[in-house]
Amino acid sequence: MAEKRPKILKVENLSKNFGGVQALRGVSLNLRAGEILGLIGPNGAGKTTLINIVSGVVREDAGTIFFEEHLLNELSPWQRAALGLARTFQHIQIFAGLTVLENVMCGAHRLRKTGFWETFLRLPRAVAEEDECRRQALSILSELGLADKANLPAENLPYGEQKKVVIARALASRPRAILLDEPAGGLNEKETEELGEIILRLREKGLAILLVEHDLNLVMRICERVVVLNQGEVIAEGPPCEIQNDPRVLEAYLGK
Amino acid sequence: MSSGLKRDRRILAGLATAIGMIPFLINNPYYLTVLNLSALNILTVCGLTLLIGYAGQISLGHAGFWALGAYGSALLSLKTGLNPWLTTALALGFTLAVSAGMGFTVLRLKGNYLVMATLAFNLAVYFFLVEAEELTGGPPGLPGIPPYTLGSLAFVTDLAAYYLIWPVVLITLFLTFNLVHSGEGRALRALASGEIAAACLGINPRRYKVLAFVLSAAYASLAGSLYAHYFSFISPKTFDIFFSVELVAMCLFGGKGSLWGAVLGAGLLTPLPHFLSIFDEYRDLIYGGLLMGVLIFFPDGLSGLMRKLYGRKAP
């Protein structure tokens, strides 16, 4: 049944070389609408490189990336985000100097319809849009339990909450797919569990989620399908229960 | 309406009231001249704050855009006899075209190439004004620039100019507050805080950097035109590179994180040398010392200091 859902993100034969280090060798993977795909692998396997290439932050050497019907290869990061492909960063990248609410409102940038003159002159359409944007951002924040922190400077929040703010920020863009780069990194057990619930709720809303994560318990619990990378190559792919017992995966993680 | 915009509009209303009453309390024309110069600097530094504090780029050439506004409007009105209001708009259009051309070419490069480009631009404009004597009048300057008029009223006196320049500056501030408290302003601040993260939210870094640059150039051009038609005389020396540096100093002294920093920085540093003249040769020492002191002890400038004291959040 799962295979009937349309492929929303198609990565084909992606290769990347960083000055002699082959970070990715012909990696292909598909993300389907409404699924949580886990991407795991030992340190240096190429997981973050893959997310960086898909989001346009790093350029590939070879391979193609399709998001829905769009070929992404020649697009800038902002153009890819504008299509509805969101991402978060391993190292948070919160906007310091902006409040929590403003951080989340930034996420709605791609949905804005008013331009420079309408905001400069504060015409009714710009005012209405701004109010709607604030309302949406507040509702996302309260869903994640951060409503009471809305007006605090974002950089003053504890680490775990900042990680939630950047997820809220990505969600404010109403993406159709989201790439999460180690969202559980640095979180404690309780926070990680809460994060798992949040990600599951996102899937229920029809979002496609690519989850890069070191916390294997989390991955095994919430992902329907897992892709394992090792030294830039896909070494296994399948449901979590199969992956767990795959000898190639055990070898990659534990050695022979 | 966001609480930030409400607060800024309240403060702006207070400032406008005070500005409106000052001439009734002070009728020394010299003080009014200094206040008018302060207003023009506030206008320019307001634009620079958008560029430096919001878009995270530095310009060392805004005196050049002043010159475009001043010489552009002055020469047009002198040579063609067109109305100064119209020539001000034409000079503004010319500055928009020049700055957009510069912005689109320079701001596609990563890093602070804008500093070098604007520096070179300022030097080029300066030497052009000095060398093209037949057109610009050269180093001695360009006299006899016609004033703005409204019916039979000519804005010649310091008092009349005061009630022309300050409303223009206050309205521009009002509109700029609209901008910074909107999605456009947030996008600019997001960009200054983290370009990659901003781009990954769909914010086009180049568009917003160019927008801030072009807008800041436009403000400088407007200030230059107002200056030329107010003083009726301009010379190249006013628009040298040191004036550009002074404008950036005002921006940082006041605090680049807030438009109020522009008001504080330009509003305090413009009159300061005039008041320090009682110290004779120590004037520059005190001026420089004060500047350094503020920047060393309060890197976020005066507006940053006030935010700390009153616990306000950045607009």
Structural summary, described in words:
The complex is a heterodimer of chains A (256) and B (315). Chain A is of the alpha/beta class and 256 residues long. Chain A has two domains: 1-84 and 175-256, Rossmann fold (3-Layer(aba) Sandwich); 96-172, no CATH class. Chain A has ten helices and ten strands. In chain A, the strands form two sheets. Chain A has a six-stranded mixed β-sheet, with helices on both faces. The longest helix of chain A is centred in the middle third of the chain and has 20 residues, at 124-143. Chain A is globular, with a radius of gyration of 19 Å. Chain B is mainly α and 315 residues long. Chain B has one domain (3-310): ABC transporter involved in vitamin B12 uptake, BtuC. Chain B contains 15 helices and two strands. Chain B has helices at residues 3-25, 29-54, 62-80, 84-106, 113-131, 133-136, 158-180, 183-193, 195-199, 205-231, 241-254, 259-269, 272-276, 283-297, 301-310, and strands at residues 149-150, 153-154. Chain B has a two-stranded antiparallel ribbon with strand order 1-2. In chain B, α12 crosses α15. Chain B is globular and about 55 Å long. Chain B starts with a helix and ends in a 5-residue tail after the last helix. The model of chain B has no long low-confidence stretch (mean pLDDT 93). The chains are: A alpha/beta (256), B mainly alpha (315). Chains A and B meet through α2, α3, α4 and α5 of A and α7, α8 and α9 of B. Chain B: This is Branched-chain amino acid transport system permease protein LivM. Chain B: It holds the Pfam family BPD_transp_2. Chain B: It comes from Thermosulfurimonas dismutans. Chain B: InterPro entries: ABC_transp_permease, LivM-like. Chain B: It is found in: Cell membrane.
- Counting helices, strands and paired strands, the structural category of chain B is mainly alpha
Low-confidence stretches of chain A: none
The share of residues in helices of chain B is over 70%
Q: How does the major sheet of chain A shape up?
A: 6 strands, mixed
Number of helices of chain A: 10
Q: Total domains of chain A, how many?
A: 2
SS-based class of chain A = alpha/beta
Most extensive interface: A-B, 45 and 31 residues
* Largest sheet data of chain B: 2 strands, antiparallel
* CATH topology call of the largest domain in chain A: Rossmann fold
- The second-level CATH architecture of the largest domain in chain A is 3-Layer(aba) Sandwich
Strand content bin of chain A: 15-25%
Which runs of chain B of at least 5 residues are low in confidence (pLDDT < 50)? none
- Named CATH architecture of chain B: Orthogonal Bundle
Task: Report the average pLDDT across residues of chain A.
Answer: 94
Spatial ordering of strands, largest sheet of chain A: 6-7-8-3-9-10
The strands making up the biggest β-sheet of chain B line up spatially as 1-2
CATH class wording of the largest domain in chain A: Alpha Beta
The fold-level CATH name of chain B is: ABC transporter involved in vitamin B12 uptake, BtuC
In total, the number of strands of chain B is 2
